[in-house]
Amino acid sequence: MLRRRFLQLSGVSALSLAQLKAGTQTKSKGRAGKVSPRGSAENLVLVFLAGGQSHVDSFDLKVGNWTPSDFEPAQFGNILLPAGLYPNLGQHSDKFSVLRAIQGQEAVHQRASYLAQTCHTFNPVFSQEQPHLGSLLAYELESRRLETDILPGFVAINNASSIQGPGMLPSTFAALKFGGQDGLPGLVHPDGETLFSQRWNSLMKVDASHRLESSPSGNQLTDFHHFFSSGEKMMYEDDVTDAFNLTENELTRYGSGDVGSGCALAVKILAKNRGTKVVQVSQGGWDQHYDIYDRNINGNIYDTSAQLDLALSAMLQDLAELPGVRGGSLLDETMVVVTGEFGRTPGAPSRNNGRDHYPYAWSSLVAGGGIVPNQVFGATDAEGWYINDPFWNRDRYITINDLIATMYSSLGVDWSKEIQDTPSGRVFEYTPKVNGISGYYDDIREMFA
Question: What's this model's pTM, rounded to 2 decimal places?
Fold first, then answer.
């Protein structure tokens, strides 16, 4: 009885665990009239800077006696950047803006990363049922898919092991995960297309009875079928092969590292317009506690910034030059968010000549999807310790939850929705309620035209 009581209190019964493995078919429910999604974008590219970028050495540059001379601070329109670190990005300041008004509370990598991916504080009891925001968007946008949409709704490039899963949602909405420099394997069969097709058709005949929606084997088998069927549709497709392969010229322009190849693939995948709406590209190396300015140390800020500089500048340029589906450019209809887990300690570097975790004031680069370019949204004090211009007119600071609500809104999704029939029995909220208020976290509309 004690064990049973413990499971009840924790919110996970034996039945709940079985339901969790099978996935939920529950429909989400909105709060009529509570919020008004903007729908200004068709796609989302989230460039996640794992480890936490130093905001005061990048998008919220603070110049002090500690600043290396080769940072070369320069004004690009309204945006101050270290031109020595971002020489290419500065030339594209007409395509992006900077949000310098984010405040958080999580200062531990795993917890901060989980929050940035799910919009929820980590709780070990419910962590397995809470989906990545990309999975939730793929789930919401499923009804818009066409027969020609053979690519998955959500793709995650690099750092695949740390990507949150689809949670309670069917595995159909899980991220297609792969390394940017490796490409996507398995698009052809070693025995050839003809023999593969024969084997596939035979398999479909043999296990047809097990693939019924009402199969006694449950949703797990249906999910497996959808997974394999989705993969089969992608094989021997010229669009898919082209989307997941990079030329030497593309690698040169974007950089051959993880973030470069990831951003290049993100552009190619979205340009195909074959079903993918959300792409996350991860770049590691930003946990720079030691010797942040030492070029002789692996993972210094010069190395990580140089890779990001090439990748972002090429991605923004290509998105701006490629056509979208609404009559404008692909950048016009793709919201781009570049953010880390938190910022780094401002002022002079630490006694280890690095910067430690600092969640109370940090910055993100934002672009596309209707965002007004070449603007600075919000401001911090002279050293970057606290926010002295919260930017919007709410009676609180902007959080990562608000930035996620903005991503949902941009793709036309009601961020106050909830799913009530969950495996744990606890209502899942797209963005968490605060004091019982749904839609508390809000779309940062002031960034948009």
Answer: 0.91
